[in-house]
UniProtKB/TrEMBL annotation:
One of its GO terms (cellular component) is plasma membrane. Mg(2+) binds at residues 425, 427, 888, 892. This is Phospholipid-transporting ATPase. Belongs to the cation transport ATPase (P-type) (TC 3.A.3) family. Type IV subfamily. CDD domains: P-type_ATPase_APLT_Dnf-like. One of its GO terms (molecular function) is ATP hydrolysis activity. It comes from Raphanus sativus. The keyword Metal-binding applies. The active site is at residue 425. PANTHER family: PHOSPHOLIPID-TRANSPORTING ATPASE 7-RELATED, PROBABLE PHOSPHOLIPID-TRANSPORTING ATPASE.
Length: 1249
C-alpha cells in the first residue's frame, strides 16, 4: 500500500506531450454540437432507473455469441439440414413413400432420414451449448457498482445498466463502455491495455475531465448527477463525440475519456466511470459479426455431385417409365396372365400416359439408392472421430498451460487441408511481447558475441552445403546410385534451402545452455560487463550510452516487497529491455518522482544514487519515430537525450556528431540482416539561455488551444532535436512465441500465404515482420499511405483526391512488380487502417487485392476489428480460395468468424476468440501440425471417402435399373428388402468409415518433412471433377460387369449338379454377394495405411454378409420368405457361385489396378514416390539422398526463415565470389608478370649465346 500511495502522488500528465491529453484550457473551448441523426443518445449519470422509460430504454449488458436460441434453433437448424440436397431429396422421398406407389416400406425411408437429421442437429446443439456456457461465464463476472448513498457493491456484468457508476480496480476488465470520471492518480490519469480491442500491448493513457477529479471516493457519488449527450452506438474504436452537462456547465468529451469494454486497467489502483454503452451497443460488440454457418468447399461441391446423381436418377427413371409405357401400349394385350380383358388403370393399354406418370414416381423411389443417404451420417461420424484425434494429439498439447487443441466444430476438418491464405493477428498470436537485449554498437565498436537465430541458421546451412558439395565428389554406392534419379521426381528447389528440424535456433540454444537468468537480457560480452567498460578506449561515450538507456523513457519502477526485485511498467517492451540492460550494466533505474528519476550507478566502488531532474519529455509518436527527454544532472548541466529510428537520428546529427556514423551504420545493417530491432542513441548538451528560450516557446505551444496544437509542438520539438551527437545503437531480439519462425517457415514451404492484420502502429508491425521472417533485408517494401492532410478532411474533393492518390500508388506498385526481372526479388505490402478505409471501397478493393496477392507478404497495421473482418472477406471472396484467420483477442472475433476457418488461441486475454472460433490451439506453432498433418489427412480422407461412396452406390443402384430393363421395366427389385437395408447400414458403412478415420498416405513425420505435400489440398487433386467422374465411371463399369456376368452365368444354365436353375432370388443373392465383395475389395485397394481395425471392418463386413445369409435363411419361411436356406442348400454347394464371385472381383478391380500402376510408373504423385522410398527403406540406406529429396519437396517461397537464410547465403556467396574473382585477377596479373620476366630472361640468354 505504501508503494501505491507514493505512485498516486505522481501527476503523470506532466510526462507526456503528444499523447491523447488536452491542456486544461481546451475544456473552455465550448461543447460539441450534438444534434441530428447519429447523435441521439442521452445518458443520465448515476440515475440508471431513468432509462427504463420506453424512449430511453437501452440494451442490457447481456451479450450472446451463440448461433441459436430456444426459439430459433428448430427452424434454423432444420433449414440448415434440408439445405443439403440429399436430405431434401430424402424428405420428398419419405413423403412419397407413405403412398401405395412406393416399392418399399415407408419406414425404410423415414427412419434413416430421422436418424441422419437428428444426429446432425444434436451435434449443432452441443456445439452451440458450449458457446452458451462461455457466454454465461462472461455475463456472470462481477463488478463494483454504485447502489446509492455512496454505497458500492458487487453486481454481475449482465445486470449493469446505462448510467451506472462503476468502480474498476487494477488488472480488471471494463464491463461496459465507460466515461472516466476519476482515478487513483491525483490528476485523473489511468493506464489502459487495449490488447483485446486493437491488439496493441502499449498502454494507452486516459485522462478524465478536471471538473470530475473530486469524485475520487465512494461517498463522493452520494449526490452525483449529470447528463451525457453523445453519438449513437457505432463500431469506431478511435472516435467519440459527446458532451457532459454537470453543475450547470457543458464540457466536451473525446476518446481520451472513454474506457472501452474488454480493455484492462493497468498500473492504476482504481478508476470510477459511468456506463455509456452496454451489451451489444459497446464498441467491441459493434465490431463483432454474427456467427455464420460455415460449410466446407468439399461439402459444397458434394451438393453439385448430388445434383449430378439426381439428374442421373431422373434420367434412368424417365427411361424406365418410358419403357414401361411403351411395353404397356405395345405388349400388354398379349400378356394373358395380366387379364387384358379387365385391365387395371396401371396396366391399361388404352392409357399409357397414366402408366408412364405412375411408374415415374415408383422408379424415382426405386432408384433412390443412387443417392447415398448414409453419406451425410457417415461423414458426420467420421468428422467427429477426426475431431477427437485432433483433440487428443499430444503434439498439440501445451504442457505449460495444460491446454490441448480443440476442434470446436467438426464441419470444417477437411477445409484445414485446403487453406491458401492465413490472416493472422500479431499481439498474443505471433509475439509474447518480450524483447531481449542482444547486441549494441557504442562509439563505433560492436558489442555482443551471441548469434541471433538467423545468423546461427545461416552458418549451419553453409556448413551443410559445403559438406554436401564435398560429399558429391565421392562415388555413390552401387546399390543406391541408380535409384537416386528414379526417385528424384519431386520438383526441384534451390540447393540452399534448409531443413529447420535440424537447426537449433539461437533462442532455444540460449535458453538451454547460455541463459543469463535475467528476463529480457541475453547480452554476452565481458568487455561491458562488471564495469570492464571503464577500460575500453571510449569509456566516456560508453558512460553516456548507459545513461541514455537508463534515463530516456517514461517507465515506472515497481519493487516487489517480498523479493526486493524491481520490475518496470512501460508503454512498450523495448523500454523494459533497455532498462533491464542498463541495470545489468550497472545503471539501475530505481525511483521516479514527479520531477526526477534516480539511477543507482554501481560501476566503480560503492553504488551511487544519482538524480536527474526531468525538465521535458518529447514522447514517441509514429510520425516522429523518436523520443527525447531533457534532463538536468547533479552538476547542473542540461542534456537532451534522444533515441529513435536510425534514419531520423542520422538526419539530425551535427557535423562533429558524425564521428561514429560510418561504423554505426555498418553495424546497424548487420543487426538488421540478423533479424534484430534497432534504435540509434544520441545526445546534445544545452546552454541554460538556449533552453530557457526554447522552453518558453514549448510551454506556449503545449498550452495552446486549437487543431494545430500538435503541429506547433512538433515544430518546436524539431528546433531542439538537432545538432545531435551520435553515441551508438541498440539491437534487441523480439521474443516471438515459441516456434513461431519455424512454423511460419514450414507454412511458407507448404505454399501458404501469410498476411498480418494488427492494431499496432506501423513501426511495431514492421519489426515483428522482420522478427518472424515475413520481412527481411533486401525485400522491397511497398507502403500505401496517405499524407496527413489527405485523409483528414471529409470534404468531397479531399476524399476524391485521397482515393486517387491511393489508386495511383496501387497501380504504380503493381507495375513495378510486373517489370521486376530479378527472380529472387520479393515484395512486401504495408498499409495502415486509415488508408485501408479507402482501399476497401468498391472502386479500389479489387486493385488492392491484386497487388496484395502479387506480394510475398502483406502487413495491415492500425486496423480496427471491423477492417480485419473486411480484409478477410475480400481475400475470401476476391480470390475464391480458402482463408484461415487466427487470433487470440476479442478484436479478432470478426475476422475469425468471417474467414472460411477461424482459429482461436487460448491465451491469457480472455476466451472471446476461442468461443468464436472453429478450432482452438494454445500457441501459434501448433498451427503447423494442425494444417500440414491433420489438414492434409482429413482432406484426403474425406475426398476419398466421398468418391468411394458414390462409386459403391452407383455400382449397387444401376444393377436395379439393368434388371428392371431386363424384366420389361416392371418396377420389380431383384434384391430382397432386407438386402437393401443392410447394404448402406452394415455391409458397406463401416469400411468406408475406417477409410475416413484411419487412412494415411504418409506418416505425420513425413508430412512435416515434405511440406509441399500439403499443396495437394489447395490444388484439390483428390476431389476435382476428373477424379470424381473417374470414380463414377468405375462404378458404372463395375455395375455392368456384375450384372452381365451374373446374368450370363446364372440365367442360361443350371447352377447346381441336380440341374436346378436360378430363380430371381437366387440370382439376386448371387449378384448382391458379388457387389459386397467388389466394393469391399475396392476400398482395400484404395487404402495406403492399414491397422487391425481396417482389416477387421473390411473383411468382417464380408464375413457378416455370409453369417446373415445363413442365419436369416434358417428362420421360418414366414419370416425369411424366398431366402429360406438360400445359402446353405442352394448357393454354397454350387462351385459356380464361388467361381463367379472370384471372376467378378478380378474383373471389377482390373481398371483401378491398371490405372494406379500406370500412374505410379509414368506420372507418380509426390506421396507415391515417398511411399516407395519408405517401402524399399531407401531413406535408411541413403540418408543423403533422403535429405536432398526433403529439401526439394518444398514450395518456392520468398518469406520465412528459409528464404531469409537463403538471402543471407546468397549475400555471403556473392562476397566469396567477388573475393575469388579479385584473387583470380591478381594471380593472373602476377602470372603475366612472371611470364614476362621469364621471356626477358630467355631473350637475354639467347642474345648472350
Amino acid at each position: 500500500m505504501g508503494r501505491r500511495r507514493i505512485r498516486s502522488r505522481i501527476r503523470k500528465s506532466h510526462f507526456y506531450t503528444f499523447k491523447c491529453l488536452r491542456p486544461k484550457t481546451l475544456e473552455g473551448q465550448g461543447p460539441h454540437i450534438i444534434n441530428g441523426p447519429g447523435y441521439t443518445r442521452i445518458v443520465h449519470c448515476n440515475q440508471p432507473q431513468m432509462h427504463l422509460a420506453k424512449v430511453l430504454r437501452y440494451t442490457s449488458n447481456y451479450v450472446s455469441t451463440t448461433r441459436y436460441n430456444l426459439i430459433t434453433f428448430l427452424p434454423k437448424c432444420l433449414y440448415e439440414q434440408f439445405h443439403r440436397v440429399a436430405n431434401f431429396y430424402f424428405l420428398v422421398a419419405a413423403i412419397l413413400s407413405v403412398f401405395p406407389l412406393s416399392p418399399f416400406n415407408k419406414w425404410s425411408m423415414i427412419a434413416p432420414l430421422i436418424f441422419v437429421v437428428g444426429l446432425s442437429m444434436g451435434k449443432e446443439a452441443l456445439e452451440d451449448w458450449r458457446r452458451f456456457m462461455q457466454d454465461v461465464k462472461v455475463n456472470s463476472r462481477k463488478a463494483t457498482v454504485h447502489r446509492g448513498d455512496g454505497d458500492f457493491g458487487r453486481r454481475k456484468w449482465k445486470k449493469i445498466r446505462v448510467g451506472d457508476v462503476v468502480k474498476v480496480e487494477k488488472d480488471q476488465f471494463f464491463p461496459a463502455d465507460l466515461l472516466l470520471l476519476s482515478s487513483s492518480y491525483e490528476d485523473g490519469i489511468c493506464y489502459v491495455e487495449t490488447m483485446n480491442l486493437d491488439g496493441e500491448t502499449n498502454l494507452k493513457v486516459k485522462r478524465c475531465l478536471d471538473v470530475t477529479l473530486p469524485l475520487e471516493r465512494d461517498d463522493a457519488f452520494q449526490s452525483f448527477t449529470g447528463t451525457i449527450k453523445c453519438e449513437d452506438p457505432n463500431p469506431n474504436l478511435y472516435t467519440f463525440v459527446g458532451n457532459l452537462e454537470y453543475d450547470g456547465q457543458v464540457y466536451p468529451l473525446d476518446p481520451s475519456q472513454i474506457l472501452l469494454r474488454d480493455s484492462k486497467l493497468r498500473n492504476t489502483s482504481y478508476v470510477y466511470g459511468v456506463a455509456i454503452f452496454t451489451g451489444h451497443d459497446t464498441k467491441v460488440m459493434q465490431n463483432s459479426t454474427k456467427s455464420p454457418s460455415k460449410r466446407s468447399r468439399i461439402e459444397k461441391r458434394m451438393d453439385y455431385i448430388i445434383y449430378s446423381l439426381f439428374a442421373l436418377l431422373v434420367l434412368v427413371s424417365f427411361i424406365s417409365s418410358l419403357g414401361f409405357a411403351v411395353m404397356t401400349k405395345m405388349h400388354m394385350g398379349d400378356w394373358w396372365y395380366l387379364r387384358p380383358d379387365k385391365p387395371e388403370r396401371l396396366t391399361n393399354p388404352r392409357n399409357p400416359f397414366h402408366a408412364w406418370v405412375v411408374h415415374l414416381i415408383t422408379a424415382v423411389l426405386l432408384y433412390g439408392y443412387l443417392i447415398p443417404i448414409s453419406l451425410y451420417v457417415s461423414i458426420e461420424l467420421v468428422k467427429v472421430l477426426q475431431a477427437t484425434f485432433i483433440n487428443q494429439d499430444l503434439h498439440m498439447y501445451d504442457s505449460e498451460s495444460g491446454t490441448p487443441a480443440q476442434a470446436r466444430t467438426s464441419n470444417l476438418n477437411e477445409e484445414l487441408g485446403q487453406v491458401d491464405t492465413i490472416l493472422s493477428d500479431k499481439t498474443g498470436t505471433l509475439t509474447c511481447n518480450q524483447m531481449d537485449f542482444l547486441k549494441c554498437s557504442i562509439a563505433g565498436t560492436s558489442y555482443g558475441v551471441r548469434a541471433s537465430e538467423v545468423e546461427l541458421a545461416a552458418a549451419k546451412q553453409m556448413a551443410m552445403d559445403l559438406e554436401e558439395e564435398q560429399g558429391e565428389d565421392l562415388t555413390d554406392p552401387p546399390r543406391t546410385r541408380g535409384r537416386i534419379h528414379s526417385y528424384a521426381k519431386i520438383p526441384t528447389r534451390s540447393p540452399s534451402e534448409i531443413e529447420l528440424e535440424t537447426v537449433v535456433t539461437a533462442t532455444d540454444e540460449r535458453d538451454q545452455t547460455h541463459s543469463t537468468g535475467v528476463k529480457g537480457f541475453s547480452f554476452e560480452d565481458k568487455r561491458l560487463m562488471d564495469g570492464n567498460w571503464l577500460y575500453e578506449p571510449n569509456s566516456d561515450d560508453i558512460l553516456m550510452f548507459m545513461r541514455i538507456l537508463a534515463v530516456c523513457h517514461t517507465a515506472i519502477p515497481e519493487v516487489d516487497e517480498d523479493t526486493g526485485k524491481c520490475t518496470y511498467e512501460a508503454e512498450s517492451p523495448d523500454e523494459v529491455a533497455f532498462l533491464v540492460a542498463a541495470g545489468e550494466f550497472g545503471f539501475g533505474f530505481s525511483k521516479r518522482t514527479q520531477s526526477s528519476v534516480f539511477i543507482n550507478e554501481r560501476f566503480s566502488g560503492q553504488p551511487v544514487e544519482r538524480e536527474y531532474k526531468v525538465l521535458n519529455v518529447l514522447d514517441f509518436t509514429s510520425k516522429r519515430k523518436r523520443m527525447s527527454v531533457i534532463v538536468r544532472d547533479e552538476e547542473g548541466q542540461i542534456f537532451l537525450l534522444c533515441k529513435g529510428a536510425d534514419s531520423i537520428i542520422f538526419d539530425r546529427l551535427s557535423k562533429n556528431g558524425k564521428t561514429y556514423l560510418e561504423a554505426t551504420s555498418k553495424h546497424l545493417n548487420g543487426y538488421g540482416e540478423a533479424g534484430l530491432r534497432t534504435l540509434a542513441l544520441s545526445y546534445r548538451k544545452l546552454d541554460e539561455n538556449e533552453y530557457s528560450v526554447w522552453n518558453s516557446e514549448f510551454h506556449e505551444a503545449k498550452t495552446s488551444v486549437g487543431a494545430d496544437r500538435d503541429e506547433m509542438l512538433e515544430k518546436v520539438s524539431d528546433t531542439m532535436e538537432k545538432d545531435l551527437i551520435l553515441v551508438g545503437a541498440t539491437a534487441v531480439e523480439d521474443k516471438l512465441q515459441k516456434g513461431v519462425p519455424q512454423c511460419i517457415d514450414k507454412l511458407a514451404q507448404a505454399g501458404l500465404k501469410i498476411w498480418v492484420l494488427t492494431g499496432d502502429k506501423m513501426e511495431t508491425a514492421i519489426n515483428i515482420g522482420y522478427a518472424c521472417s515475413l520481412l527481411r533485408q533486401g525485400m522491397k517494401q511497398i507502403s500505401i499511405a496517405l499524407k496527413n492532410e489527405e485523409g483528414s478532411s471529409q470534404d468531397p474533393e479531399a476524399v476524391y483526391a485521397a482515393r486517387q492518390s491511393i489508386l495511383m500508388q496501387i497501380l504504380n506498385a503493381s507495375q513495378m512488380i510486373k517489370l521486376e526481372k530479378d527472380p529472387h526479388a520479393a515484395f512486401a505490402l504495408i498499409i495502415d487502417g486509415k488508408t485501408l478505409t479507402y482501399a476497401l471501397e468498391d472502386g479500389l478493393k479489387y486493385q488492392f487485392l491484386a497487388l496484395a496477392v502479387d506480394c510475398a507478404s502483406v502487413i495491415c497495421c492500425r486496423v480496427s476489428p471491423k477492417q480485419k473482418a473486411l480484409v478477410t472477406r475480400l481475400a475470401k471472396e476476391g480470390t475464391g480460395k480458402t482463408t484461415l484467420a487466427i487470433g487470440d483477442g476479442a478484436n479478432d472475433v470478426g475476422m475469425i468468424q468471417e474467414a472460411d476457418i477461424g482459429i482461436g488461441i487460448s491465451g491469457v486475454e480472455g476466451m472471446q476468440a476461442v468461443m468464436a472460433s472453429d478450432f482452438s490451439i494454445a500457441q501459434f506453432r501448433f498451427l503447423e501440425r494442425l494444417l500440414v498433418v491433420h489438414g492434409h489427412w482429413c482432406y484426403k480422407r474425406i475426398a476419398q471417402m466421398i468418391c468411394y461412396f458414390f462409386y459403391k452406390n452407383i455400382t449397387f443402384g444401376l444393377t436395379l435399373f439393368y434388371f428392371e430393363a431386363f424384366t420389361g421395366f416392371s418396377g420389380q427389385a431383384i434384391y430382397n428388402d432386407s438386402y437393401l437395408l443392410l447394404f448402406n447400414v452394415i455391409l458397406t458403412s463401416l469400411p468406408v468409415i475406417s477409410l475416413g478415420v484411419f487412412e494415411q498416405d504418409v506418416s505425420s513425420e513425413v508430412c512435416l518433412q515434405f511440406p509441399a505435400l500439403y499443396q495437394q489440398g489447395p490444388k484439390n487433386l483428390f476431389f476435382d471433377w476428373y477424379r470424381i467422374l473417374g470414380w463414377m465411371g468405375n462404378g458404372v463399369y463395375a455395375s455392368v460387369v456384375i450384372f452381365a456376368l451374373n446374368l450370363g452365368i446364372f440365367h442360361v444354365q443350371s447352377f447346381c449338379s441336380n440341374g436346378q436353375t436360378a430363380d430371381m432370388n437366387t440370382m439376386g443373392t448371387a449378384m448382391f454377394t458379388c457387389i459386397i465383395w467388389a466394393v469391399n475389395v475396392q476400398i482395400a485397394l484404395t487404402m495406403s495405411h492399414f491397422t487391425w481395425i481396417q482389416h477387421a471392418l473390411i473383411w468382417g463386413s464380408i464375413f457378416t454378409w455370409y453369417i446373415f445369409l445363413a442365419l436369416f435363411g434358417m428362420l421360418p419361411p414366414k419370416i425369411s420368405g424366398n431366402i429360406f436356406h438360400m445359402l446353405l442348400e442352394a448357393l454354397a454347394p454350387a462351385p459356380i457361385f464361388w467361381l463367379t464371385t472370384l471372376l467378378v472381383i478380378a474383373a471389377t478391380t482390373l481398371p483401378y489396378l491398371a490405372h494406379i500402376s500406370f500412374q505410379r510408373s509414368v506420372n507418380p504423385l509426390d506421396h507415391h514416390i515417398i511411399q516407395e522410398i519408405k517401402h524399399f527403406r531407401i531413406d535408411v540406406q541413403d540418408e543423403r539422398m533422403w535429405t536432398r529429396e526433403r529439401s526439394k519437396a518444398r514450395q518456392k517461397t520468398k518469406i520465412g526463415f528459409t528464404a531469409r537464410v537463403d538471402a543471407k547465403i546468397r549475400q555471403l556467396r556473392g562476397k566469396l565470389q567477388r573475393k575469388h574473382s579479385i584473387l583470380s585477377v591478381m594471380s593472373g596479373m602476377s602470372g603475366t608478370s612472371a611470364a614476362s620476366a621469364s621471356s626477358e630472361t630467355t631473350t637475354s640468354t639467347t642474345h648472350h649465346s
